[in-house]
Amino acid sequence: MRADRRSAGLSSSRAGAAARLAATAAPLVALGAGIGVAVAGGAGAIAGLAVAVVAVAVAGAYCDRLALSAMAARPVSEVEHPELYRLVRELSKGGRLPVPRLFLSPAGQPNSFAVGRNPRRAAICCTAGLLASLDEAELRGVLGHELAHVSGRDLLPATVSAGLATVITYPAGLARPLMLVLGPVAALVIRLSVTREREYRADAAGALLAGDPVALAGALRKIEAGAAELALAPGARLSSVAHLMIASPFHPEGFARLFATQPPLGERLRRLEALAGYRR
After folding, report:
1. 229 has catalytic annotation
2. How far apart are alpha carbons 185 and 175 in whole angstroms?
3. Which residues pair with 74 in a beta bridge?
4. CA 158 – CA 24 distance, rounded (Å)
5. Least confident of 108-117, 177-186, 197-206, 222-231
6. Which residues, 6 or more positions from 10, have their beta carbon under 8 angstroms from its beta carbon?
7. Quick one: what percent of the chain has pLDDT higher than 70?
8. Which of the four pLDDT bands, split at 50, 70 and 90, describes residue 13?
9. Is 271 exposed, middle or buried (CB count within 10 Å of its CB: 0-12, 13-18, 19+)?
10. Looking at the predicted structure, is the pLDDT value of residue 201 above 80?
11. Which of 31-40, 134-143, 228-237 is predicted least confidently?
12. From CA 105, how far away is CA 108, in angstroms rounded?
């Protein structure tokens, strides 16, 4: 009975992920066909559709690399950060997950994110600012949060949407005014693939995996404060991967608001404190 329920839940989760992936790719395909029609009529629509399909395939194949490169992340060795590896191994064992690849971004802003197409190909990236800001219990909570994304079946749609958004906004890196047109399309792709509930679920599952909801709440406070103090510029590449991060890397104003998918800090803290048994 339990096995049947687990199998049914897994099938439902995979079906939901497939539906989100299809919805994520639709705007890019429609954009390609629309541009083709505008340029060359019916024949152009076919060519535009073909280009869009190729772009979707490229984004799906290289989505994790695109996200990591947007934050200038590099692989980090166990010799450099033995404590980071120890924590990730302990948490991965507790969650019955493969140990993910670990990356380090030189950004001074405290933040983190997970990418990958499946648990065996997952990667976790921490910024230098994150490692400098948190104590061990807080870092453990953040790593638990990211591993919860890996095990929660929401990693693939979120990662692929980052790749698609990067492809869509690439021309804006060459001519910034194009971001006014392409940015909303990229934002739509992202919002079709992720919801605020994604972060709430990862907070809860990650806190339980790490064994300390209060420590994760404390980490979120520090991360939000650091992100506000050291906010990143919402360029085309960073905007395309901002939804992957545990906290928004931008000031919540102007164009950056289109890409804001993280839930309010106050509600995240309330839920974590309730999980720990606190009442407000």
Report:
1. no
2. 16
3. 104
4. 9
5. 177-186
6. none
7. 80
8. very low
9. middle
10. yes
11. 31-40
12. 9
> Is pLDDT of 3 > 50?
no
Among 138, 146, 199, 224, the one annotated catalytic: 146
Asked if the model's pLDDT at residue 160 lies above 60, the reply is: yes
CA-based nearest residue to 216, from 270, 138, 163, 148:
138
Distance CA 98, CA 209 (A): 15
What order do you get walking across the sheet with 74-75 strand by strand? 74-75, 101-105, 123-127, 112-115
In the chain, the amino acid numbered 20 is: R
The residues facing 105 across adjacent strands are 127
φ, ψ of residue 85 in degrees (nearest 5): -65, -40
CA distance 78 to 32: 44
DSSP for 87-135, please give it. Answer: HHHHHHHHTT-PPPEEEEE--SS--EEEE-SSGGG-EEEEEHHHHHH--
